[in-house]
Amino acid sequence: MSDMSDWLSVTRGDAPLLLSIPHSGTDLREVESRFVSPWLARKDADWWIGDLYSFATALGATIVRTTVSRSVIDVNRDPSGISLYPGMATTELCPSTTFDGEPLYRDATPLSTAEIDDRRARYFDPYHAALREELARLRQLHARVVIYDCHSIRSRIPRLFESELPQFNLGSNSGQSCDPALSIAAQGACASSGYSHVLNGRFKGGYITRHYGRPQDGVHALQMELACRGYIEEPIGAVSSDNWPTPYDAEFAAPLRSVLHTVLSRCIEFAQSPQA
């Protein structure tokens, strides 16, 4: 079953697994004309994540997804303004720059509080209402549920991290958002693939992972940040409107997609296993 608005989709399944896809959107809504360029405003999208995880519906997963660009509002940021990574470069609830530090807006005047509040009411709040509704529905069916937050990012962004990012970046808020057995199972699937991987490295989990992960209440949250090179051809060096994003190629993505299938299968197995 799928419920659709013009920007928010919920595809319902009955497995104890909820996929959140908060950053694959490219819709700039009413803000488009204010950005320096549409390409710049879409540059940091989690490109083709919906295509990459399309197999999840066959596993019975529920998927919540927004088509609104993270440059309009980032539904994976703490609305209070608290930084997820104090002392490190990051972007805001309504970003003013790209990951590379480029200004997003033609007008240098910061967004007003009223405008940010309006975007939150129109996009952030409904997205999280959908997550809460689906988690509550699945908890009626299962003693344990996994919320898996899907992300990707370019492999090299010096402003955000040094050197090349590992292929698989799992985050459990330093062990607070899920039972260790879940992160161990997911990490094991990554390790056996031969791809580079890390648990709670540069990316420990965003607002969604940290906010909804309540192991004591039967909700276990895990974030997966993928380096884009594993499923699309990444340009070497700086990206531009001429070379980014590269198209999605199902054949190129197939090996990594197979690993993700194993990761999600293990998430379901964890949720369905007898509790200690």
Automatic annotation (TrEMBL):
GO molecular function, one term: hydrolase activity
InterPro entries xref list: HutG_amidohyd (IPR010247), N-FG_amidohydro (IPR007709)
Signal peptide positions (record): none
Residue ranges crossing the lipid bilayer per the database entry: none
Source domain of life: Bacteria
Entry keyword annotation includes Hydrolase: yes
Pfam family, one: FGase
The keyword Hydrolase is annotated on this UniProt entry: yes
UniProt keywords, alphabetically: Hydrolase
Protein name: N-formylglutamate amidohydrolase
Native organism: Hydrocarboniphaga effusa AP103
